[in-house]
Amino acid sequence: MDNLSHHTIFTLSGLNVSRTHKYIYFALTLMGYFSIIFFNLTLIVTILLEKSLHQPLYIFVCNLCVNGLYGTAGFYPKLLADFLSDSHVISYSGCLIQVFVIYSSRLCEIANLTVMAYDRYVAICRPLQYNSVMTPLLIGKLIPFAWICPSCSLILALLLTIRLPLCGYHIEKLYCENWSIVKLSCIPTTYDHIYGYINIAVLSIPVFYVFYSYVQIIAACRRSQNNQIKFMNTCLPHLLTFTNFMIALFFDGMYTRYGTSDMPQSLRNIMSLEFLIIPPLFNPIIYGLKLHQIRRRVYSIFSCHNITQNECTVNCCQKKLQESTVFHHKTLNKIYPDMILSG
């Protein structure tokens, strides 16, 4: 195959629909993206403004929502622009940036969910030591760790990719991902494969740790009714989030490794987009509904807003009524001064 590494533009696939359908998909995608922004920002602002929520669990939930906004920012704006364009292309540097943002966000979510599993393990299995273990100093180390390690891992992967001369420029996805670029290489990609297997081995560690934590948590819950209540209120949202994310990760991995052009385009799109759509929308909703402290605070914020609006309306009406009364009184004074004075 001729060396096409001089091409600096990649073409993306998956949007082979009519113009009318494009506008429909654009509207639905825009509503979905706005929903993701709204729900995540609502939880972030609520946790930041409410001092009673400045606890390890809620700080990690806030970090999870920030990561959701970060990851979707690398995908949705480009997809929305593609819906309005006849050509679906992306520059080489833009492709690498998209890979970094999307997949560092995915790795950051794994790290954050692992940290949250540790937090729940300490809270339920070692409750007397919770305050001495989950200190602000430790939290201040865990959150940067959840961001820095994924970023370093992606940087190394991209450095291995950048060195490859390319013999193609078409990516069989709606967005860029590292393996799709590696498959376009003109030379053997042994080092990339080895690094990929190392990453899989490393990522299996937090996954197994989360399962181990929940084995211990469930065992502790069987011995205490108080722990069962804690599990339902705080662990169940985390378990649902983790399960949902792992299913999304599985679909993306299956599509990346084994997806073929023989599969229907709609099925390929669903498999590749599931982890970019469901977790960012699902996470803030499930935590907002299940964690009663967050739910109560969100309700109180919106209730106060409605009450303030109603009070403002009443005050405005009273003010207008007073102004109207004064005006009529002055008018009567001018027209019938003698009658009013005699009265």
Q: Short summary of the structure?
A:
This protein is mostly helical. The protein has 12 helices and 3 strands, in the order E-H-H-H-E-H-H-H-E-H-H-H-H-H-H. The chain has helices at residues 19-49, 56-73, 76-83, 92-125, 130-133, 136-162, 178-182, 190-222, 225-258, 265-290, 292-335, 337-342; strands at residues 9-12, 89-91, 170-171.
Describe the structure.
This protein is mainly alpha-helical. The chain has twelve helices and three strands, in the order E-H-H-H-E-H-H-H-E-H-H-H-H-H-H. A three-stranded mixed β-sheet has the order 2-1-3. The chain is globular, with a radius of gyration of 28 Å.
Helical content band: over 70%
- Secondary-structure element order, as H and E? EHHHEHHHEHHHHHH
The rough form would be described as globular
Biggest pleated sheet: 3 strands, mixed
Low-pLDDT windows of residues: 1-6, 310-314, 336-343
Structural category is mainly alpha
Question: What's the arrangement of secondary structure elements?
Answer:
Layout: E1 9-12, H1 19-49, H2 56-73, H3 76-83, E2 89-91, H4 92-125, H5 130-133, H6 136-162, E3 170-171, H7 178-182, H8 190-222, H9 225-258, H10 265-290, H11 292-335, H12 337-342
Parallel strand pairs: 1-3
Antiparallel strand pairs: 1-2
Helix pairs in contact: 1-2, 1-10, 1-11, 2-4, 2-10, 4-6, 4-8, 4-9, 6-8, 8-9, 9-10, 10-11
Descriptive tags:
globular; mainly alpha; 79% helix; disordered N terminus; 3% strand; disordered C terminus
